[in-house]
Amino acid sequence: MSDGRRLAHEVLIRVERDRAWANVTLDAALRGASGLPSRERGLATELVYGTLRRALALDWALSHYSERPIEALDPEVRAALRLGAYQILHLRVPDRAAVHTTVDLIAQGKHRRAKGFVNAVLRRLAADGLPPLPDAALDPAGALLAKEGLPQWLYALWAEALPSGELEAVAAEVNQPVPQALRAPSPAARDEAVAWFLEAKGPGGAALKASPSPLAPQALFVEGGTSPDQLPGFEALRLQPQDVAAQLVSHFAVAPGAEPLAPTRVLDACAAPGGKTCHLAQLLPEATVVATELHRRRAERVQQEATRLGLSERVEAHAADATLPLPFAEEGSFDLILLDAPCSGLGTLRRHPEIKLIRDLADLERLADLQGRLLENAARYLRPGGRLVYAVCTWSPQEGPEQVARFLDAHPDFALEPGPDGPTLETWPHREGADGFYAVRLRRAPSPA
Q1: What are the phi and psi torsion angles at 219 (to 5°)?
Q2: What is the pTM of this model?
Q3: pLDDT (tens digit per residue) in 106-141
Q4: CA dist 269 to 32, 372, 374, 442, Å?
Q5: What topology does CATH give the domain 180-241?
Q6: Angle between the 95-107 and 115-128 helix axes, to the nearest 10 degrees?
Q7: Can you say whether the dihedral through the CA atoms of 118, 124, 125, 126 is positive or negative?
Q8: 3-128: what CATH class?
Q9: Active-site annotation holds for 393
Q10: Catalytic residue among 270, 278, 343, 393, which?
């Protein structure tokens, strides 16, 4: 059994058992295995993300060959079965090797008594293959669960938001790996960065692929490298990792509206890791951007990013709870406020496939309550006539349109702000090839003359 498989198994257990983020857990595991060959590191990464993308579909297939309910198994056993099934069904790994290495994982763990069970289930899957999928005409939710690993609660949300003909497209798109998206300081710097990467080499001398995004003027994609900060030229070119949809939110926030807005004092609430903070500072060279973040270390990270990008003189980062009075600001003191609120993150499924496993409908309600308190507090710091932009990287109605409707009902001095592109922004992976976001521009009524 390879060390890459063992590492992947350990990460998958932690993700499900501890509801941990896969990227953070995998990165930490890889850092701790510094001597792991690059081939094994690549295998571990493929196994972790591939298995998480299709975890529920793998469970569906495994359930046809298991006498025990898959959902009732210990996370260690379930993670091993998923790893084996993913290799059998989706990778060019010989069936015998996939079964053998997976049984070895169990044999060396605390559930070694389950090795016979794991061996039997995977051998049956290897011999008989993927069971017939449910009829999509009779059971569309079941068909997408079996084919793409889409949980039925998420299917129900999407079915309300999208035409039925788009459901399969979005379910398939969120299972696709995505290239690294970066933001350059300006459109001209973006073009310079694309040219640079096309001439540069990645780790091990591998060629890099780079291209500009057609959606955002500062956005580019890079393929063939490693983590963004290890790309050649990352620091010199003053690049920042940021999905294209997140960049669109900042452009949306500063876009012309029904009335002129020339903000000189901007608040970015819930700002870490600082992508939008720095982007707003780049888009508004006459403004001071004040960022707030709950945890001190994360606030310090925002300030460090601003310094790295040459924006420290116009960015102030503070550690504070944005649901409470802000000790560094007076009420009504900001011209523009961006609240990119903590959310379920459903729009980031392409990069965080574990959300399918660690989120549920109860999380949406809990997060909606937090978002409501953040929105209520942020409104206090907007001046009359100012703009408040509320954004979430998700599509659930509780966190998006319903949240905004509740706020407007409680605040008659706020209204949707019309403009050339309308008061709302919505992106979908299968439409824009970017993360999913919902954002809305709200304008506070001016003070009476």
Answers
A1: -95, 140
A2: 0.94
A3: 998 888 899 999 999 999 999 999 999 999 999 999
A4: 34, 13, 9, 15
A5: Alpha-Beta Plaits (3.30.70)
A6: 170
A7: positive
A8: mainly alpha
A9: yes
A10: 393
